[in-house]
Please model this.
Amino acid sequence: MLKKKYKPGFSDLVNEAFNAGLNIKGMGEVPVNKLFVLGTFIMGFSNPGFWFMGLALEIVYLYFLSTNPRFQRYVESKQYANIQQSRNHKLQEIVSSLDTPLQARLSKLNSNLAEINKLMNWNLDESSGFLNQSKQETLNHLPTIFLKLLKTKQLIQESLARTKPEEINKELRKFEQQLKAPNISPALERSLQGNMEIQRKRLDNLANARENEMLVEMELQRIESQLALVREEIALDSSPEGLSSNIDRINTTLGETQDWLNTHSDFLRKLSGPPIDGYDEVETEEPLPPPRREAE
Model:
């Protein structure tokens, strides 16, 4: 899975060019261009010609730097790093919000990934460029998908915990008894039937939530089982062919999981909201570990 490219716009390039500075030893980054603009502005009070000359030089400088391919690659890399940092911060917030048992599952997944990575590194040399790249991209993408599923499972569980089916059924029985009362007015009858319809809808939603929780759990278990199988097979067959086959297998798992997420995107979006910062395609540098808890 390839990283999505984020091309900076012309305004981004001009802004970066305007704010560009030089790193001077002992002084840090010095905003040379801003100092030039400030100096030209001050000198213009003594001779307005400096303003026109400074404006012309500034336009030439901004155009030259913002159209320079090397500078464009620098801005693109900086923008990508900022996006990734922001996204990883939000992912860490999600990790921190997980219940302890779910954090333990994420930690176990990361341990298995680290072990698989170690086994593959022992058996792949630097000449296996494409295989190494495929391995890294595949392993980096899995924890984010797994984290999405864990958070979805927790949200469903929280929703189920707030809804008590016995209380809903109790309300239904109460409304049914009231409907059987003699000489009930049409207005009251309509109101009771409306309340009963709402309670039945709540029961339907409860059944759907239980089914969705089971679907998410099955998907989580499939990923965990697939990783355990890959780890065992790498230990038995560490040949390049075997490693390539296992990478393909994990990629297949990722593809199937992504298809599952796409198929159930409506209910997932209702539970968890929009993609994190709108950049779901960005990959993390490494699996996200649960935060360490302070000893009590």
The first helix runs from residue 10 to 19. The longest strand covers residues 22-24. Residues 127-131, 272-296 have pLDDT under 50 and may be disordered. Strands lie at 22-24, 28-30.
